[in-house]
């Protein structure tokens, strides 16, 4: 009988060992399947993040180009405004200079313009009225 008992004990332990191996194999398969699933999910998340990063880079480059265009436009507008202001400043300066020259010379010009009674005809007041210089060259 001891043989039967030993065989029964051995047969039970072989059965248990086979069951343990099968269970471990199933656990390894399940673990590998879960690892593959997790890896696939991570790869999918990486792909999504890479696509988002690509879109963000494209958006950034588009906005950078737009801002560069706006900056160039504003700089051109500022140059045009500065040129307009400079031209206006020069014009005002020339007008002031002209007015100053006119004020300085106005005394001499005023005397000439007062002498002529009829400047369109070129007739001097002395010839037409006889008051200016009348005593010097009038003959009868």
Overall structural class, as computed from helix and strand content, comes to mainly alpha
Task: Spell the H/E element sequence.
Answer: HEEHH
Radius of gyration, whole Å: 56 Å
Number of E strands: 2
- Overall 3D form: rod-shaped
Largest sheet composition? 2 strands, antiparallel
Low-confidence stretches: none
The helix fraction, in percent, is: over 70%
Strand order of the largest sheet: 1-2
The span between the termini is 188 Å
Strand content: under 5%
Contiguous helical run count:
3
Mean pLDDT: 79
Brief rundown of the structure:
The protein has 140 residues and is mainly alpha-helical.
Could you characterize the architecture of this molecule?
With 140 residues, the protein is mainly alpha-helical. The chain is built from three helices and two strands. The chain has a two-stranded antiparallel sheet with strand order 1-2. The model has no long low-confidence stretch (mean pLDDT 79).
